Give the backbone structure.
Amino acid sequence: MWLSQIHRTMDHYFADFMDGPQKSLPFIPPYRWPCLYMTVLQCSRLGFISLENRSYVLEPCPAHSNGTHWIYSAEHLNIAPGTCGHGFNVSSPTARADSSPFRAFGSRVRNIKCLLDTYKYILKRNKVGASKKFYRALNIRVALVGLEVWNDVDKCPISQDPFTTLHEFLDWRKVKLLTQKPHDNAQLISGVYFQGTTIGMAPIMSMCTAEQSGGIVMDHSDNPLGAAVTMAHELGHNFGMNHDTPERGCGCRVTADRGGCIMTPSTGYPFPTVFSSCSKKDLTASFEKGVGMCLFNMPEVKVLYGGQKCGNGYVEEGEECDCGELEECLNPCCNATTCTLKGDAVCAHGQCCQDCQLKPSGTQCRESSNSCDLPEFCTGTSAHCPPNVYLHDGHACHNVDGYCYNGMCQTHEQQCITLWGQGAKPAPGICFERVNSAGDPYGNCGKDSKGSFAKCEARDAKCGKIQCQGGANRPVIGTNAVSIETNIPLQDGGRILCRGTHVYLGDDMPDPGLVMTGTKCGDGTMCLNRQCQNVSVFGVHDCSAKCSGRGVCNNNKNCHCEAHWAPPFCDKTGFGGSVDSGPIRLAGMSLTMTLDVIKALVFQFLDSITLHSQWLKSEFN
């Protein structure tokens, strides 16, 4: 299953039902009743209802074929409790780990329908649909654009080792799947029992990246809600959410005995179905840092799984608008029954639509979220803000302290502050070289294909375990983090103190003490695949050279011009911006105001000509 085009919707929620065009049940929209979210799976007649402090499951009664259903509290689901082995618990919302296993004790595996392995389990969309509902409370809509079943042969190696399976799946996604089918995130749901108690695993803060935007989920429960919650948990890690641990003081509107919140470190019965205040803060911090640059772009509606339907919230072929089901639509510009615009309305949706009319060209519709992001502007011809664009990979950022990568600016100093608090800074280069040449849990360049710690070559030392100085007495990232101090003697008799960290995430997991991908490791170089590589591999300088010194290169390899210069090459006067982002408004003035100024200047010029003509006549007559 491909979870793609995860779109942030700021003005409304949607209520779609997961199994095709069957008639949906009445729905009470969340913006009117914020405590109620409901999923009904028409094909299997399964249902899920989440109230403010209790959840219910709807299932068909096996003894009856007349549509009789059971409805029971989710806390009565029969699953043994367990814990999540992901020990990276943060007090800082910007902290990051490489990956996270979500653990629980599951006793049975059921037949399901969708993306699978040699065991030929089939995953039903029930799991996807329920996960989609969880995220609506965060103004995120998950659009399913692909569904794939492996019932003959696995397309990537799948084993009981979750760490190996995750990395094999992510490698296959990058090399094969991503080139065939554009998408933002991919999740593998498997019937294979992973070693130990691991039931899911996903990289942290990896949404939208080609290398790590995905995860694996084991179908561990008789009830589809179990795998759905696990998928929501792993997606949460992709988004940058960390665990809800006691020291973080997270607010959860559901008590622990009723399931708690989705990012809790442990799971069992009842299943959690809501996100905590910490998860929302983590998500906001991730977006501000540049995570999820692809989420602002609308999905290609022709490839959405489930077929076209008026009322599904997506404007498809033959529709002028789509505000969801009749019961939930509050859009004054759209007719929910016919999916057509009302009266004199020109538009109904989008950040460039206001009061059913298009906003003027040059109106900013999306601000820059960080030093590697670029703003977008309304074009005056579309109701939607242009797709999100950001600086080309390899572009200098933070006063040349870092380089942009996937829309983020990563630096050693930033990571030291995340691990050790304010006052922390990177240690001298000799610390990285000495410590990371060991190839042990305390100094390494990650793990090799056999799962052993890899030694860092001298040129790659700054891409291994982060080495810092200063800051707090102990790591500030959580209770499982320990300090690793190394004293290195110098020739003059002095010593250098190097401070590293180790966070236990289980034997199959790397820890957040590793330098992040995209971090600057030298002049003109950054960390890629645990190696210090030249940023010239991205071609950023060649791209910027065509912008005439009056603009920068964006991730689409197009020039983003300064305010008074025109794309595509910033060599002619114009309104700035790029062919991707729309025109920049000149000096804070709208196009109408600019034209008024031009008219005034023309009239002044004509008046001056008239006066000059009159003066000449008076002089020579």
Remarks:
- Residues 595-621 form one domain.
- Confidence is low (pLDDT under 50) at residues 1-45, 79-127, 505-510, 590-605.
- The two ends are 90 Å apart (CA to CA).
